[in-house]
Each structure stands twice: as structure tokens, then as C-alpha cells.
Amino acid sequence: MPIVHNGAVTSCVFFAVSGNSYSAGTFISSTVGVPALTHSFCKQNNPAVQTMDPSEVEFLAEKEMVKIIPNFSLDKIYLIGGDLGPFNPGLPVDVPVWLALNLKQRQKCRIVPPEWMDVEKLEEIRELERKEDAFTPVPSPYYMELTKLLLNHASDNIPKADEIRTLVKDIWDTRIAKLRLSADSFISQQEAHAKLDNLTLMEINTTRTFLLDSLNCMYKLRSNLQPGSNKGKALDY
Amino acid sequence: MPCERMPMRYGHSEGHTDVCFDDSGKFIVSCGSDGDVRIWESLDDDDSKSICVGEKAYSLALKNGKLVTAASNNTVQIHTFPDGDPDGILTRFTTNPTHVTFNSIGSRVAAGSSDFMVKVVEVSDSSQQKVFRGHDAPVLSVTFDPKDEFLASASCDGSVVVWNIEEQTQATSWPVLQKTNDVSNAKSLCRLAWQPGAGKLLAVPVDSKVHLYERGSWDHVSTLSDDLVTQPINAVAWSPSGQFLAAGGVGGFLTVWDVDSKLCVERQKQEKGYTVCGLAWHPSGNQIVYSDTQGSLGLLDGLSTSSSHPSTKATKAPASKVAKDYDDLFDDDDDRLMDEGLSDTNSPAKNPVAGDEDGDDDDVVPATGRVRNRGAFLDDENSLDTGSLKLGLDKYGDDDDAGSAIVAPAAPAVPLRPVYEGPMPTPPQKAFQSGSTPAHLTHRFMMWNSVGIVRGYNDEQDNAIDVEFHDSAVHHAMHLTNSLGHSMADVSQEAVLLACPSTDELASKLQCLHFSSWDTNKEWMVDLPKGEDVKALCLGQGWAAAATSAMMLRLFSIGGIQREIFSLPGPVVCMAGHGEQLLIVYHRATGFDGDQALGVQLLQLAQRKRQVIHGEPLPLSRKSYLSWLGFTAEGTPCYIDSEGVVRMLNRSLGNTWTPVCNTRESCKGKSDHYWVVGVHENPEQLRCIPCKGSRYPPTLPRPAVAILPFKLPLCQTTTEKGQMEEQFWRSVLFQNHYSFLSSSGYEVDDQAQSQAEKKQQELLMKMFALSCKLEREFRCVELAELMTQNAVTLAIRYASRSRRMALAQRLSEIALEKANQMNEEEFVEQEDSSIRRTSGYSQAEATGYHYNNRHHQEEEEEQREELEEEEGRDMETEDAAENRKRLNPFAKRGSSPEKPALKPISKEGRVNPFKVLGSGRSSASPGQPRVTNVLDSMTSVKKLAPLSGSAGKTNKSPPLKPLAPRPKAKTQSTLMQMTGSKTANKKAPQNVESAEDKMKQPEVPPTPSPVDNAENKRPKTGFQLWLEENRKSIVADQPDLEETDIIKEAMGRFRILSAEERLSWTERAKGQTVDAADLKKRKRAEGEGGAENENAHVEADESVAKKKKSLDPSSKLSAFAFNKN
Questions:
Q1: CB under 8 Å, gap of 24 or more: what pairs does B63-69 form?
Q2: Considering CB atoms only, which of B470, B677, B700 is closest to A71?
């Protein structure tokens, strides 16, 4: 049973569809240029290549823009993805994360942490996340990836890096716990479909393999339990 | 009666407070708007006891162990004292009570309320109440007659009423107060007080005086006042003996009068000038406790009331007191002085406003609040510490002692303190480095500019300086131990300059880390003479400057050589350097009423040193001070005042200052500010750091730079018209630096400049279209005046298409005028381009623009012309033809049969770098190898005198690499000019001959071309012909004239000629072109098959002729147009 992921990363819908689960499910991704996704979809029969790698999600996250303060001077650079710069020493400029990290590693810039990467704001989000049963909106669709990337490579530019790391991990844990819980109730209540809002790509990605495999497994087991039943006929859960 | 004023302490949160002593005098009890009553054992008690009585407490009274409070829950409550246990509610009102008080024995409580009522309640039995109705507005305060017969109350309706308690009737009433609608709006709380003991007198604070009324007769027997008390009195309190009366009020003053002698025996001032709203005497009579609207408590101690004898006092007091006051005012070194000085600046006229606003901590409040808070933030935030302010005041003090008008004349005449009520001097602001945060901070920015950041650390562990460069390519970051205690810094691409003030042992030092030096010694240090301190410093390109306390400016080379030294007209405030420019701001005079009087000097330290701005006053916003001074990245002086207004020098408007931005408008909160770190003109950026709730950023976390846009404060920028006007003038203003840069020998970004010009013309066209739409034709014409000639043509087209023929006609006149003007300018410009410095934008650049667009334009024009010819509008055609002729002497005509013949010539012409066909500027591109060529052509062009417009243009921009602003090879350009003018001078008389000589030397291919080109460019005008003829006579008259002067002189003379004469010259000029055409025909007939060289020669001539011929049809018309003028 595949997961429908509508590209806005706001909702995730589980489908438990009768019959041929492979053809009934659709996998929609609005994130462009990800061969891995289509690839994995085509080869869903093989669980090993079925899913996206976390590193691929991270790759997508690296397209996010982040402010840096360069310490060099460079005119506008023209890239396929768009124009960047001009770079003036001491003047903040927006660049993609991949470039920011590259420059940072070469000590060519300081990274200005995104606005949400702030202890107070994250604490608020954490409290909200703990209070609500549903998923709350996250500050960035790639909050986990960005936190990891920025803290690993530019922790010296981020005040209270350790606290932020802990807070983001807390938020992540809370959300993953919620996700497991909802998957659990989804299966135990034998629902045919469920919708989850405000999930991020990375979160969907972590649960996908396990959920799909187990649903597949259960499907097989159940069809074996009822040897007489037709594959095309609806299951009774 | 000398007393000691104890320092203020925090008592309650901000807001109204009240305070009293307990019966024994052991405790101070206070209440505040935080709703707490606090019991303090002394003023230093850090562990007070708090009793919460409600959301807000308005007033309290304490007697016999009972604490009565007026709280915001509309009740008057009793608590036990000192335990603070609730003891019931005494009475209720329909709205909040405003004041409560006990009678002398503590058996009754009187309470006034905002519901206009006064109640008297028995403490033992709260059911026994007496209600006094009669006030028409909230009651301000109540007080008991010590004999319990009467009760006095003051109300917002302006009346003070004395009630007979038993009869519950009004005994008397005085309408002496100002009417208001609510207690919160009342200027004075009007806390009345009845003299203890016999209760002979009732003291009523009325504005800034205290009225004393006699009991029984209720006559106004006397008034207590003090000249220094100019603001409303909030509260009065009698000393327990009844001999002294204390008063406190708006502005934080505290005054004690001896009632018998009616003399003021004590004056004090709340240290921050906050409004005193609660006041009480210690039972022993030697202390006064007071509280202010900021929630703090204060104490006056050592009031020796008991020992003093009124009689002796009356005689002794004035002299000694006055003397003491003077001492106080001028010599005593404490902050109070400053506060007094500042609050004294409030003229009486402002007082009415003062009361309401008081206590409001924002610096936007008018009048008193403003001045006072200004003082506060001056010393808190802006590195103008009290020291400097004191200094200033001391100085005034000295002046006064020396007999100045403020005090001395009055002193002998009046025994009391003399009063000066005119404008008061402002403490001069202290010298500062722009881009630094206050010096008292342990971690501070010593400099943040476009090159780097210098941070200073000065805490227990470390005294160090960090230098960091925005561009790591300049230099790596540096960490220095600051053993000398440097307090000022500047950083440039070449060096870091540091300076420290002198100490007892060490002289003031200037240290320079010249990191860009190529030798191994990267540092130098200079000791200043004894007693001279560095006050401000700055770095330029190749020099460093330090302004000292001896009002001197010392210049050093960047390597450490002492250079020029000169005196400054006043104490320096700030300095800035950029390239060769030095900008100094100093105190021009004493400012008054919060304004600073600053002067500014701008010096050019280039080869030709000169002063550009000669100490003119620096415009600042009202009541503001300078907060940033510097240059834009392009080198235009710029500064910012404390009101956040950014002003930039407008060189094209006689070095005036134009406000280009108000950073406060972009602030979200009132106390937010932008701390500016840099100004850029291209792109238009104001780089600054947003600071929440402060004027400057902390060093950690590292602040991020934001960018603000500029906006000229034009009117009605919400409308489309206003917006476009703003954009246009901003663009014009921000383009000034191009002409400045090119005139001072820097390379400019031509592309950006032409883009800016294009944008301006576009804006003008848009405005033109808008005005057209609105049927504002006059405005259209005005706009056209601003346009370049090219844009005017477009405008004409627009006008004629939208069927505004009258407008189109007027526009064409303008176009004509512009063309003429341009022609004339070209003469002048080419000749004196070396003299020209900071000419207006319209003149210089507009011309350049014409060159660039000539071809394009001429085509358009032609189309238009044809069109109009068809329509048969003669006048216009003539004008247009005239234009074209003057402007585009070699218009390419599609219909011209000779067109193909043009080509070889134009190719040949390309050899000449100075040929202006496409764009005058790009022709200047050839590098060094062609220098000889350049010189050659230059001389010949010059020899041909004023014909070519190109020579001037090229002179202006000698071939140089298009790099970021760097001084170009000046030697070269001057050399060129010199050669040019010299040869021209020398050979002027035989210029034509020599040119012909050159033409006859076919071996040198490029030589003919300059001549031809020069001729090609433009047919000779009447003036030129005239000049050729008359040059000799001019030279004979004034043989010492330079080439430029000759032209000028000639133009002058030509203008004097009568219209007919001039016309005849013009006709002759045209006649010549016809001759040339004839010549061409003849030559063509015979010239076939000649030698190659000859051929080239002929062709050259041909081209001239062709072009001229092509103009023939219009020549008559142009003559007509000329005549018309």
C-alpha cells in the first residue's frame, strides 16, 4: 500500500485499498527532479529500492534559501537554478543551503540562522506540539534537515546551538511518536484511509518503508487466511 | 537648612505612588500602581513587606495601626499595621477613590472619589458615614481640619471647597484650580494640607504656587512661591511643627518654605526630574520622604527644623542661601546640576503641556518630558556621559561668574535667586567616532564601517581589541591586547588607526597598524604633546587625521610622516575620511533649547588641496544631535542625526544637504532605532542594524545588517505623481556622484550612469504622459524642460499623437532651445572641461546622453519631420529642421543617392579614436599604444578651433581601465590637455593652413581624418566663421589669453553683435556649405582614376560635401528660426 504524498508536504494519506495495491495507489510528488522517487515507485516490488534515502531528502532540503554574510566580494553569479548574489562583504545575501555550507567550509562566509532557529520560538513550537493531538505546522518543511546541516557545519554561527539541537530533536521525537501512534490506530482500527496534515518529507520518509512493508505483509497474511477469496474482491476490514 | 538628599530607590512599578511615615517614624509606607503597599524599615531596606490591596492603589493613610488604602476596586480598605492583615472595607464608591486621609486623632477617614463624592467615615463604625456632594468633577484630594470642624477638598472642577463636617454644608469655595475631566488628566494632584496644631492655615497648591488661606475668614492671606518652581505643584505637606511647608511637583522639585518668613529654605530636585506625587514629613520633622510617578522613593534627611529660629533665619537666609545656590549651580559636581540646567530650559509657555506628559518615558513627549529625558538618554546611551555635560555646564558657570548676562546683572539687585527665562544653552555633544557604541560598555564596537569591524573588550579578564574585516581578502582578523587603553578606532583598506586619551603619566597616543605596508614594519605610534588628547580620528586613502582637544587637526601620512596641521574653528564632534576627502564636524557655537550648533568643513587633500565646504552650519533636526557622519561608498558626504534623518550633500545644488531617508519611519516601535553602518549610492542602499529598544546594537549576538531604501521627503508620495517625482529627484541626486567622481579623476561606471539617466528620462516621460492625461499642458512643458533633447522629441511625438498641437509646438521650441544650448555648451565644455568640477547634472550628463543617442534620435526626428511636412505645418518643420541641422550635421538619409559613397570614409574614420559617431565615451577606450595618435588628433582638432565637440569629451575621460574607483593617471590627462592647448595657442593664427598641410601628407593615413571628421561633425556655424575672422583681433587685444578664454571672449563679442550681423554670418556659414558642394561636384568630374592617395583625399572631401549638401534644404528654414530668436 503506497503512501500518497501531496507535494505541499501538508498532508499524508494512507490508503488501504483492496485488490492490487500496486496499481491502485498513486504516488504524487510535486518536488521536481527527483529521479529516485519515480524510480522507487516503479520498483515497488522490490522493497530494497522502494523508498527514498534520507540523504535524498536532505538533498532536497539543500535547495532551501538561507542568509549568509560573505567575507568576499563577487558579482552576481548566474546558475541554472537562478541568479545568486551579488556578494558584498558584510552584507547579508540569500543563497541555497548547499552553497552556504560550501562557502562556510571554505571559511568564506558566516551563516545567519533562519528566524525560527531560535530557542524561544522552538520552545513554543515544542509546547504546542506536545499539547496538540494532531500535527502542528512546522517552521520549515525541512526543519530537521536544516537543523542537522547547519548545526553540523556552522554551529559556531548559531547561538545556543546545543539547546536548539535538543529542542528540534524533541519536536521530532514528539512528531514521530504521533506518527507511529496514528499508524498504529490506522491498522488496529482497520481503516481504509487516513489523512495526516503538516507532515514533512523527512517524516513521511522515515515511516514509509516500515508502514508499506507491514501493510503488504498483513495483506498477504490476510489473503492467505481466506484462501477462497478473490484478489479483486474487497477485504472485510 | 542644609539637608542631604538620599539617592532614589526603586519602590514600585512605574505609575502613581503615595508615601507616608508611620506614627513612630520607624517605617516608610508606600503604595503604587502595582497595587501593593510596601512597608520599608528604611530607605535602604531591601526586604520590604508587601501587602497586596488591589490592582492599583491610589492613596494611603496610616494612623493608630490602621492602614487605609484607596484601591482600584472602588473600595477604601483597612489593613492592620504593621502586620498587613485585611481588616474590612471601610466604604465603597461607584468608581475608584482618589485620596484618603485620617483626621488628626485617627478616628475618622475622609475619602474623595472619582464619582464626585467625598465621604467621611468613622473608623470604628463604618456605617457612620457622611457624604458630601457638591463637586462637579472627580475629587482630587481631601484634608481634615486638625480641629475636626472642617474638611477641605479639591476637585477637577477647579474648585477647592471647605465643608462644615457636622452640617455637611459648604463653608466656602475657591475656584482657583484648572478644570479637567479626570484625575489622570489633572496637571496637579492638588494634595491640600491643613496646618497642624491650631489649623490656622490651609495650604492649597495652585499651579506653581501655594496659596495659604486663613481659617475662619477663609481669606487668601499669602502665597508661597519660588522662582525656580515653574511647574505645577502636586502635593504639599506641613512639618509636624507647622512651621515649614514642603511642596513637590512636576519636574521633580522639592521645596520647603518657612511659612512665617515666606522664604524658601530648601530646594532640592529629584535626581532624574520625575514628577513627585507623594510627600510626607517624618514625625520628628527632620526628614521628608517622597515618591515619584516612576515608582521610586526618595528621602531628604537632616532638615533641622526644630533648631532653627525663624527670626534669625529670616535675616540670615537670603545672603547665605543665594551664595549657596550659586555654589550649587556652578561648582557643585553632581548630576542634579545638569537636571536643573535642563529642566530650566522649559520656558513658562511650555508648562501647561508639561503636567500631563510627565512621567512618560518616551522621548517623543513634548516639553519637559522631552528635555529631561533627552538629558537622560544623552548620558545613558550616547556616550555623552555626564562628565562632558558637566563640563559644558561648568563652562557656562564660569561664564556667568565672569559677568555674563545670565546671572551677574541680576545678582546684586535682587537678593533672591535671579531668574533667567530665555532660551537655555544645550550641553554640547561629546566627540564621537561614527560607527561606534558608547565607550562605557565593556563590550563595544569601536568602529563598524564598510571595511571592517573593530570591537573592544574591557572586562576583568581581558582588555583587548578585535579587528575583523568584512572582506577577508583585505587582511586576516587581528586580536590585539589593549594595554594602552585605546578608546577610538578607525579601519580602512590600508590600516587600522587607534588612539587613547592621556592618563596622568602617559600622553595621548595615536597608534597605526599599517598592515598594507610592503615593508616589515607594519606599525607606528605617535605621542601627542602633553595636555593634548585625541578626540576624533579618521583614515583616508594614504593619510590619517586626528583632531585633538587643543582644537587642532593633525594630518599624518599613512606611513607615519607628520603632514599638515591646522586649527579647527571649534571643538571637534566627529570626523570622516574617504579617498582624498576629509569631513570635519565641530561645535560652531553654543546651541540653545536642545539644539546643537555644529559646523562642517570638507577638505580635499588631493594634489590640489582645497576646502570645499568652509565651515558652514550643519543642518540638524530640531533638538537632535549628530549620530553618524561619513561618506557614501561613492564619496558623497552624508550624516545622520539622532532623529534618524539621513542627509546627503547635494553637490549640484551648491553643496546643500538633502534629507534622503528617515530611519525612524521604518522603525516598528518608538524606542527602536537603526544603527547605520554604511551608505551606498549605487545601488541605493542604507546599510544599518535594526536595534530593538535601543540606539545601538550589542556585540553579541552578532548583529545582522539590514538594508533600508532611500526616500526623499517629498509631498504626497502616495499619489502616482508624487511617487514619480520622488523617484526622479532621488535618481538625480544619487547620480551626482558620477560627475563628482569623473571631475576628481576617478573612473566611473558609464553603464550604470547611462542606465540611471535612462531611468530618469523614462520617469520624466511617464510624468509627462500623466500630466498630458490630466490636461496639464503647462506642467508638460515644465517637464520637457527637464528632459534631454532626445526625450523631448519623444514627448513631441506623444503630444502630437494625442492631438495636442499647441503643446507639441511649444515642445518643439524647447527642443530647439535645448539643441542651441547644447551647441554652445559644447564650446565651453570642450575648452574648460579641465576647470569644470562639480557642474550640474543636467548640463554635463545630458550632453553625454545626446551623443550616445544621436543616431537613434536623428532617425526618429527625421520620421517626424517627414510626417509633419506632409501635414504642412511649416513652423514646426522649420524648427525641427533647424534642430536637426545643428545637432546632426551628417544625418544618414535613406533617400540620399550618395549614401554608398559614405562608407569607406566612415571606415577610415574608425581609425580615429576620437571620432564621435556612436558614443563619445566609448571612443575613449584605446589604451596606451594609441597615445601618440590621440595626441596627434587632439592637436589638430584643437587647431581647428572650436569645431569639434569630441575633443572636450575625450579630454574628460582619458583612456583608462574601467576599474573600481581608482585615481586615474592624472599626469597623462594633464599632459594631454597641456599639449592640446599649447599647440592650439601657438598655431592658432595659421590653423587652417596647418591642417591643410597635414592633409597633403598622404603617407600618414589617420591625419586627414581628424580634420574631416571635425568638419563632418558639424557644418561651420556663423559663430565659428566669425571667430575665424576675428580671432586675430581678439588675440591682438589680449595676447595673454588662453585658448579657452579666447573662445569665451569671442562668444561674448559675438553675442554683442546685432541680430542682422549674426544672421549674415549664419547665412555665410550656409553659403560655405553650398560652395563645398559645388567643389565636390567639380572634383568628382575630374577626380576619376587618380592616384590612390589622391582618391582617398577626394573621398574625404566628398563626404564632407555630401553631408553638408544634404542639409541644404533646411538651411533657409533654420535661418528663419534663428532670426526668430
A1: B63/B23, B63/B102, B63/B106, B64/B23, B64/B106, B66/B106, B66/B123, B67/B29, B67/B37, B68/B100, B68/B102, B68/B109, B68/B123, B69/B31, B69/B37, B69/B100
A2: B470
Contact state of B704 with A71 under an 8 Å Cβ cutoff: no
* B898 contacts B1108 by C-beta, under 8 angstroms: no
| Listed range (A97-101, B219-223, B1007-1011, B1048-1052) with the worst mean pLDDT | B1007-1011
- CATH number, domain of A148, equals 1.20.58.1020
Residue A142 belongs to a domain:
yes
Cell of B885: 541641422
Q: Would the pTM count as exceeding 0.90?
A: no
Using CB atoms, which residue from B470, B700, B706 is nearest to A90?
A: B470
Query: Please, what are the averages of pLDDT over each run of 10 residues along chain A (237 residues)?
Result: 39 43 33 37 46 87 92 90 87 92 92 92 93 91 93 90 93 93 89 88 89 89 72 48
Q: How many C-beta atoms surround the C-beta of residue A223 within 10 A? A: 13
Of B701, B705, B706, the CB nearest to A90: B705
DSSP state of B932: H
Helix/strand number for chain A, H first, E second: 8, 8
Q: How far is CA B987 from the centre of its chain?
A: 54
Boundaries of domain holding A129: 7-34+48-222
Q: How many domains is chain A built from?
A: 1
Q: Cβ–Cβ of A91/B473 closer than 8 Å?
A: no
Span B845-865, pLDDT tens digits: 444 444 444 444 444 444 554
Spell out which residues of chain A touch residue B467, defining contact as CB-CB under 8 Å: none
Residue B141 exposed, middle or buried by CB count within 10 Å (0-12, 13-18, 19+): buried
Encode pLDDT of B773-821 as tens digits: 888 889 999 998 888 888 888 888 888 888 888 888 889 888 888 888 8
Say what the pLDDT of residue B291 is. Answer: 87
Burial class (CB in 10 A: 0-12, 13-18, 19+), B393: buried
In a domain, A128, yes or no: yes
Q: Which of B472, B702, B704 sits opposite A71 (nearest CB)?
A: B472
Is residue B974 within 8 Å of residue B1072, measured between CB atoms? no
Query: Which pLDDT score is estimated for A104?
Result: 94
Q: How far is CA B12 from CA B51, B141, B278, B692, in A?
A: 12, 22, 13, 25
Sorted by sequence, the CB contacts under 8 Å of residue B59 that are 6+ apart come out as: B18, B31, B69, B70, B97, B98, B99, B100, B101
Note whether B701 contacts A: Cβ–Cβ < 8 A. yes
Taking only the tens place, the pLDDT of each residue in B27-44 is: 888 888 888 888 888 877
Residue A169 in any domain: the answer is: yes
Q: How sure is the predictor about B764, in pLDDT bands with cuts at 50, 70 and 90? A: very high
Q: Using omega within 30 degrees of 0 as the cis cutoff, is the peptide bond preceding B1006 cis?
A: no
How many Å is the Cα radius of gyration of chain A? 21
CA A156 to chain CA mean position, Å = 26
Beta-carbon separation of A89 and B470 below 8 A: yes
Residue B553 confidence class, pLDDT cut points 50, 70, 90:
very high
- Asked if A90 lies within 8 A of B704 by C-beta distance, the reply is no
Is B704–A112 a contact, with Cβ atoms under 8 angstroms apart?
Answer: yes
Q: Identify all chain B residues contacting A69, using CB atoms and an 8 Å cutoff.
A: 704-705
Q: Does the beta-carbon distance from A72 to B705 stay under 8 Å?
A: no
B1056 touching A (Cβ < 8 Å):
no
Residue A141 lies in a domain: yes
DSSP E strands in chain A: the ranges are: 3-5, 11-15, 65-70, 77-79, 82-84, 93-96, 109-112, 193-197
The C-alpha cell at B833 is 572641461
| Distance from C-alpha of B769 to C-alpha of B777, rounded to nearest angstrom | 10
Per the DSSP assignment, residues forming a β-bridge with B254 are: B248, B268
Check whether the bond before B683 is cis (ω within 30° of 0).
yes
